């Protein structure tokens, strides 16, 4: 068993599921366990389809399907959010957690049904398990959700189906089935939330920074879809197409996205953003510091490319070189988490929009910078960038930002959770910025004992666990809001399980690891 990484990965995910439900056992726990068992069997059907080339779309081939680890993320996030908000007495967000959990289960079940449906011959045992899991989930939803909540869950499922058909066709080999579930499921949920809040907007209700995140994500995705369809009919690399790209970006931004945001926050978005960024002197200092770090990251890119030109055209950045960016991101996020989390929240949204927009310019070869970006970023490609898009740097940003964006602020009157929950916003920093970075650096330079069936080393994993424990101690020293209340054993268990998952998973660890660590901490 230990020589099959997918089995060990599955075992680690099941252990995490059992850990969570050992603390929180209710009717949704039966659904989660049934979904985990069903996804375990269904992922082997996906793996077989990928090996034989029988999947409907072209998925990333250098990894397994990743269905089980991806299937459990959204349901577990919803369940732990429900429990946290229930303890705080916030009924609205408790129900929201139930909707998130139900949506995640239904979307994951749908992806499993597709695998079972296109597998020939029809796998009888997996069909029975899928039917049993589906029955348990639907029965629980029937007795837990109101009619409006059921409609909301079905809306997200419908958006997911159509979005999957469009994006997986336009972007072959960019995702595994599991990564598609996480990314497209998240986008579908965000789009549904934005539509729902736009139709039911009430002046003074809702936090502007939440609306800013929703509009930014949906706006940048719609922008990409628009240009993907447009450039099917015209060459994107000409000056005329490039001028049209910039002009339509301005039109869509100023004519659609800005009015949409204005309707939600009831004030001029540009003035609100400027006032927000310059509200305090601390924010100005942080912005100057982050500008310096961004310039340093650009300097590394230019320096490595100059090195490639002088040495060899086939020169590729080493693992250690790529981890420089992880160190820079840690240096970016830690001061933001300590001094101003709201500013970090908004700055991360802006940075995500800029990253994706620059990727559009690179992908469509938009003049004058498209070809230059292609040349500069090709140096940092690895085996996970097998499709037309380069996504690893965007996944790094998402992995660091998602714990900040998903932190249940409304259910924490004092602005922080107690015990291990106080470390939730630091999940990305610990799992990716510290753990994954240290594991890669020490594993590639000093590691000798390999985990069975993988390229990862025992020394790298152990060093990563040790480094994350030291990081937790430093957070306790420098962040006065963190109070762990003697929950050290749970923190050690959480960090160890997620570090083992990093050693065995073939999915995008920058995206998966912070979410699992956040679930364990919550």
TrEMBL record:
Membrane topology: Multi-pass membrane protein
Compartments in which it is found: Endoplasmic reticulum membrane
First-level EC class: transferase
Keyword Lipid biosynthesis found: no
Coiled-coil region(s): none
One Gene Ontology cellular component annotation held by this UniProt entry: endoplasmic reticulum membrane
Keyword terms, alphabetized: Endoplasmic reticulum, Kinase, Membrane, Transferase, Transmembrane, Transmembrane helix
InterPro entries: Polypren_kinase (IPR032974)
Bilayer-spanning residue ranges: 12-41, 61-80, 92-116, 122-141, 153-171, 211-232, 244-262, 282-303, 324-339, 345-365, 386-406, 426-446, 458-478, 490-517
MF-aspect GO terms: dolichol kinase activity
Main location: endoplasmic reticulum
Keyword Transmembrane in record: yes
Assigned EC number: 2.7.1.108
GO biological process: dolichyl monophosphate biosynthetic process
Family, per entry: Belongs to the polyprenol kinase family.
PANTHER family given in the database record: DOLICHOL KINASE (PTHR13205:SF15), TRANSMEMBRANE PROTEIN 15-RELATED (PTHR13205)
Protein name as annotated: dolichol kinase
